[in-house]
Amino acid sequence: MKRILEIVILSMLLLSSKCPSGLAEDHAAANQPIVNSPLATSGPVPRAIDPPAPQDIQQSINRGVDFLLLDQRPDGGWGSAERTKGLNIYAPVPGAHQGFKLAVGGLVLTALVECEPTLDLERAAKVRLAIDRGTQWMLENHDRVRRAEPGALYNVWGHAYAIQGLVRLYHRAEAEEELQNKLLAAIETQTEKLERYSFLNGGWGYYDFQHGTQIPASSPNSFTTATVLVALHEAAAVGVAFPEKLIDKAVTSIERQRNPDFTYAYGEYLRMMPRMVINRPAGSLGRSQACNVALRLYGDERVTDEVLKAWLNRLYARNGWLSIGRKRPIPHESFFLVAGYFYYYGHYYAACCINQLPSDERPYFQDHLAHLLLPLQEKDGCWWDYPFYNYHQQYGTAMALYCLRQCQRE
Questions:
Q1: Is the dihedral of CA 338, 300, 163, 130 positive or negative?
Q2: Nearest-5° angle of CA 124, CA 126, CA 130?
Q3: CB 142 within 8 A of CB 191
Q4: Residues 2-57: pLDDT tens digits?
Q5: Nearest 5 degrees, angle CA 337-CA 266-CA 386?
Q6: Which residues pair with 390 in a beta bridge?
Q7: Which of 78, 189, 268, 279 lies 20 to 30 Å from 69 when distance is taken between CA atoms?
Q8: Residue 187 in contact with residue 170, Cβ under 8 Å?
């Protein structure tokens, strides 16, 4: 009897938890403005800083670019399955590493294309050669990436970040029709694979340990889904379509995982435990930025400028919760179950959030973002947050460079 009562109560809770998009429609129908919880638009603010000098940002970009130029592999890509000592990551070969390398290649090319216009002539000439070699590597290797095995879908990261890199290469090749056609075909291939690996209940994740079915049927992750949606939005801008039904399911999946304060559950399997430490504000610092910008891009009116600014301020003011996890070798071993690899990820999407704000409100947030990242650059010019084979310095540097480029004022 007790078990039956528990099931009835749980069913009532699930039925009553209408997603935010449904609430938005109800408000619109009643011609009432959408009002977020005060928890979503208030919170800590960072201390005042001395804004970094433009030349310091450019010098840091130059050093990061130089690292990536020296680190490019003979085949034209970046990263490898080396440095295996002491790793604590489940990564079945070879599929997982094919996905990792594609993701890193997409991120690095995104960063290099973004930074190219800021560089001096000599460095820019080297970058052009590196981008050409990287482009060839992407075109030759992107189609090889698959699901590693039933339980591991790291390829999803590769498809998403490959799209972002390929889109920028497409824009860069404006005067080269043949190359643009090849890049467009590659983007279409990557979107088709994301369609294939969309989870049964909407969105994307990188594990399917529970079922291992052809259509992944375990729990999607809020941030993985957000990563894919941001990439698909960029693909749509160059004319590559994606099934609207799957987009809607993905958006709704993230909305189901959102709490009133705009923290997001780590995955759908935790959405009914909003006060579990990983789902609290400090645990969500590396996810909320990605989820906010993804929902904003797809028209969620609840993600207002005030929400974006509140969570950017929270990221800056409470940055220590993410930073304490930086460089720790075991995933989720830090406070609030933060994993090191969320550090630059969170800031990468913070830069995307800044770009959603009115131009006259960006400088404050740009300065704080650059202020955080500049001191973390290593002596060799790279940034990294988690010891991850031979991929961490590459993805960390690419994400940091992207951020710093967005912090520059034209």
A1: negative
A2: 110
A3: no
A4: 444 443 334 433 333 334 444 444 444 456 778 999 999 999 999 999 999 999 99
A5: 50
A6: 80
A7: 189
A8: yes
